[in-house]
């Protein structure tokens, strides 16, 4: 089977790439784009650690044949990270001790980013529901939930300060 | 974060510790939140070969033949490794701390001892080609009767290379503790309470599966990028297996996407490095999720019998424990885990008569190994369940039963070591306080450091 050319906007930059049939988004991100911050966990859509944003919505990049999302906007943890300092979600994870081995962290933060973009003031239940597809085997869920709630406060107060 | 309660043992804290009791940021957290932490799989090399294993479909069988002809015809296949390629095929992980005998082959020779055991390794240009070829390798088996039960294994026909279906501890078939006279204790006790406790194997299921990439360097060395939790076990065992000096191997790692003890075995690295040596190309060997679940070592299943001689007032005067650790097909870290289990018995209680037999037993199940407090965790489950059973039987408060029997500084343990630095009494008192429970005055004023109460 022949390779095909796929165009994506990845972290704001337009990219064209040659992909083998059946290549998944994570293959492309990690192998041809060098964006290794997206982690490969189970390759069967069960752990959520490979979560990225596709057109603003969360997607498990291990389950997504890249040919099916031609033209999409993809955002990864590298795109979320500002050139200087950290994104408020990253700050909240850092200061809230919400990382242990770090392998689920990228996926958790991308899920949090999608949640907070849609719902700036989530309840604890909203956060639990949002991360329900993401597994943390170090079982640091409480700290992660607290960090996402803290990030919501940080983003709201930053927006408030900007408006004032 | 909550501060540590420093009100206990204030005298021992006089060293003016500046970090203990404080919250300190992890050194690796910034890398984690930005996705920049480098796991082994983030380091890639052009021209890498992918390794996939042909695995046993039988629990216990003789290997009558391995036919690789069809597999070698799959486009992209470069080489298939069997035991004949391994310089020193027999090893045991803890060899370098004096554990023996070598009971595990890197790749099996004439038999497989558990389902999923690796048989031969396919090296190919792509993971897909390696998988396809692995499926086409034909293994001719002659089934042998498997044994899955630890007590049955103790008396069934030996299936191990070295004779017995159990690990031999200094000439004995188990780790033993003998203290006082349990039979006399049972005769003098008001009640004898006996129960059996059992656990199943538990898989760590780390989010990052076990894997490594071995890369031949221009200077004749091999660099191995690995997610092992045990870089030096791995380095040492690889050197012995491959028959090369230690300084020909370099391990890069220490960043582990979830380990929990599941990444202290030495399974993927020696074969990947062998493949790299034989092909002079980088070789990547990573478990799929299914392999991680099926063949990586779980926490051992255990079966524990506890028989206690108990007085009406709650004092335990005799405790006899028979404990079986299911090591699965190979020793790995289970011999050490069983020693830990024995060392942990009879729990943190002062009991004058103790008898423990702790067996490390081989069965045709997936080899078990390390996992968070292995050897101790299941033992604790059994011991503390037994304490609750006794409390229920005597209609006593379970905290007070534990305080009555708690070891305190100066007591003699069954291992003939004097207790020093005990804190069980204070921990139970703190737990009672935090749960709003009123202990009887006698127990509320007890201390580990005095005989008061």
What topology does this entry show?
The complex is a heterodimer of chains A (164) and B (453).
Chain A: E1 4-10, E2 13-19, H1 25-32, E3 51-54, E4 57-60, E5 73-75, H2 77-80, H3 88-95, H4 105-118, H5 124-130, H6 141-163
Parallel strand pairs in A: 1-5
Antiparallel strand pairs in A: 1-2, 3-4, 3-5
Helix pairs in contact in A: 3-6, 4-6
Chain B: H1 29-34, E1 49-55, E2 61-67, H2 69-72, E3 77-81, E4 90-91, E5 104-105, E6 111-112, E7 118-124, H3 127-136, E8 138-143, H4 150-155, E9 175-179, H5 182-188, E10 191-198, E11 211-216, E12 222-226, H6 231-242, E13 249-252, H7 268-279, E14 283-286, H8 289-295, E15 301-310, E16 316-328, H9 334-344, E17 353-362, H10 377-394, H11 398-405, H12 424-434, H13 441-444
Parallel strand pairs in B: 1-14, 12-13, 16-17
Antiparallel strand pairs in B: 1-7, 2-6, 2-8, 3-7, 4-5, 9-17, 10-15, 11-12, 11-14, 15-16
Give an overview in words.
Chain A: InterPro entries: 2Fe-2S-bd (IPR002888), 2Fe-2S-bd_dom_sf (IPR036884), 2Fe-2S_ferredoxin-like_sf (IPR036010), 2Fe-2S_ferredoxin-type (IPR001041), 2Fe2S_fd_BS (IPR006058), Beta-grasp_dom_sf (IPR012675), Diverse_Oxidoreductases (IPR051452). The complex is a heterodimer of chains A (164) and B (453). Chain A has 164 residues and is of the alpha+beta class. Chain A has 2 domains: 76 residues, Beta-grasp domain (Ubiquitin-like (UB roll), Roll); 76 residues, DNA polymerase, domain 1 (Orthogonal Bundle). Chain A has a 5-stranded mixed sheet with strand order 2-1-5-3-4, with helices on both faces. Chain A is globular. Chain B has 3 domains: 32 residues, no CATH class; 186 residues, Aldehyde oxidase/xanthine dehydrogenase, a/b hammerhead (Aldehyde Oxidoreductase, domain 3, Alpha-Beta Complex), CATH 3.90.1170.50; 153 residues, Aldehyde oxidase/xanthine dehydrogenase, molybdopterin binding domain (Aldehyde Oxidoreductase, domain 4), CATH 3.30.365.10. Chain B contains 13 helices and 17 strands. In chain B, the strands form 4 sheets. In chain B, strands 3-7-1-14-11-12-13 form a 7-stranded mixed sheet, with helices on both faces. In chain B, strands 9-17-16-15-10 form a 5-stranded mixed sheet, with helices on both faces. Chains A and B meet through α3 and α4 of A and α1 of B.
């Amino acid at each position: 089977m022949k390779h095909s050319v796929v165009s994506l906007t990845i972290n704001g930059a337009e990219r064209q790439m040659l992909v083998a049939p059946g290549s998944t988004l994570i293959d492309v991100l990690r192998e041809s784009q060098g964006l290794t911050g997206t982690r490969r966990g189970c390759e069967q859509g069960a752990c959520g650690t490979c979560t990225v944003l596709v057109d603003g919505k969360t997607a498990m990049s291990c389950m997504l044949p890249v040919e099916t999302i031609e033209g999409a906007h993809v955002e990864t943890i590298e795109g979320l990270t500002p050139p200087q300092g950290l994104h408020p979600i990253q700050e909240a994870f850092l200061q809230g001790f919400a990382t242990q081995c770090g392998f689920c962290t990228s996926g958790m933060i991308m899920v949090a980013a999608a949640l907070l973009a849609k719902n700036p003031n989530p309840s604890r239940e909203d956060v639990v529901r949002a991360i329900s597809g993401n597994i943390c085997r170090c079982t640091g869920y409480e700290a992660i939930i607290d960090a996402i709630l803290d990030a919501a406060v940080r983003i709201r107060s930053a927006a408030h300060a900007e408006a004032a | 974060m909550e501060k540590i309660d420093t009100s206990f043992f204030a005298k021992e804290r006089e060293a003016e510790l500046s970090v203990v009791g404080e919250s300190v940021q992890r050194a690796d957290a910034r890398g984690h939140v930005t996705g920049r932490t480098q796991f082994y799989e983030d380091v890639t090399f052009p021209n890498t070969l992918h390794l996939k294993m042909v695995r046993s479909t039988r629990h216990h069988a003789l290997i009558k033949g391995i036919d690789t002809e069809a597999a070698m015809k799959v486009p992209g296949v470069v080489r298939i490794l069997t035991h004949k390629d391994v310089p020193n095929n027999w090893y045991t992980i803890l060899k370098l701390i004096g554990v023996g005998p070598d009971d595990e082959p890197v790749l099996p020779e004439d038999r497989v001892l558990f389902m999923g055991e690796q048989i031969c390794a396919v090296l190919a240009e792509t993971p897909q080609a390696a998988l396809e070829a692995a499926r086409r390798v034909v293994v001719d088996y002659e089934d042998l009767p498997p044994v899955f039960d630890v007590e049955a294994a103790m008396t069934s026909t030996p299936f191990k290379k070295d004779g017995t279906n159990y690990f031999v501890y200094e000439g004995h078939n188990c780790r033993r503790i003998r203290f006082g006279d349990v039979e006399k204790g049972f005769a003098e006790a008001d009640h004898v309470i006996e129960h059996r406790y059992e656990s199943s194997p538990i898989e760590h299921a780390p989010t990052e599966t076990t894997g490594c990439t071995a890369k031949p360097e221009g200077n004749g060395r091999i660099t191995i990028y690995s997610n092992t939790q045990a870089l030096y076990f791995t380095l040492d065992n690889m050197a012995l297996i491959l028959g090369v000096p230690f300084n020909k191997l370099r391990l890069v790692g220490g960043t582990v996407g979830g380990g929990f003890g599941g990444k202290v075995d030495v399974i993927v690295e020696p074969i990947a490095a062998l493949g790299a040596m034989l092909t002079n190309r980088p070789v990547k060997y990573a478990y799929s999720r299914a392999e991680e679940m099926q063949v990586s070592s779980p926490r051992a299943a255990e079966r524990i019998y506890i028989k206690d001689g108990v007085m009406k007032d709650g004092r335990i005067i005799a405790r006899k424990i028979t404990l079986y650790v299911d090591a699965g097909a190979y020793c790995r870290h289970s011999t050490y885990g069983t020693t830990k289990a024995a060392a942990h018995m009879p729990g943190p209680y002062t009991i004058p008569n103790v008898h423990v037999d702790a067996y490390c037993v081989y069965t045709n199940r997936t080899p078990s190994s390390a996992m968070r407090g292995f050897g101790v965790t299941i033992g604790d489950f059994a011991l503390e369940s037994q304490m609750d059973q006794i409390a229920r039987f005597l209609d006593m408060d379970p905290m007070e039963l534990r305080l009555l029997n708690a070891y305190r500084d100066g007591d003699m343990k069954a291992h003939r070591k004097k207790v020093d630095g005990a804190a069980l009494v204070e921990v139970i008192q703190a737990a009672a306080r935090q749960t709003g429970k009123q202990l009887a005055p006698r127990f509320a004023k007890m201390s580990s450091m005095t005989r008061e109460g």
